[in-house]
Amino acid sequence: MAQNSLEDIFGTLRRHPDVEAPNLQAWDATDRLLLEAAAARLTPDTRLAVIGDRYGALTLGALGTLGVRRVRVHEDLITGERALRNNAAALGLAAADPGAVDATGFDQLALGEELLSGAGTVLLQLPRTLAELDEIADAVARHAAPDVVLLAGGRIKHMSLGMNAVLARHFQTVQPQLA
Hints:
Layout: H1 6-12, H2 29-38, E1 48-51, H3 57-65, E2 70-74, H4 78-90, E3 105-108, H5 113-116, E4 121-125, H6 130-143, E5 149-153, H7 161-170
Parallel strand pairs: 1-2, 1-4, 2-3, 4-5
């Protein structure tokens, strides 16, 4: 995929097959913040996993602007999976060939070892519930690289201090910040 700007990518994204309306968009400020925070950490060979990418902004942003060749991604909703595939096609990108080791693109996987094995960086759109965050943090801590960096973000109205406690149970260092 040719290098694009985030504006190019975000401007192409649609929510379809989810609800679409003039006041709804397929990306938010958290997507931009996470990609900007990850930019200095990522190389073409970085083992990147993305969790909770609602419509493909994180996955396609990493592939299109940060030079990452392959992204493993987990979306909880089928609408997110389909939207990612639709948006990738609109940008001229397809899912990676599962059998090809050096393939570029993305792999849509269940939350677990295949998604996270060896991942050095994980981008996470924070879920709304602490139970779901606990499940995700546990999986990242168990299956990702020992020195994994988890960059997580979300909308302030859905975040709580309890999220820091959940993350602290699974990781040595938690550095909460507000954008």
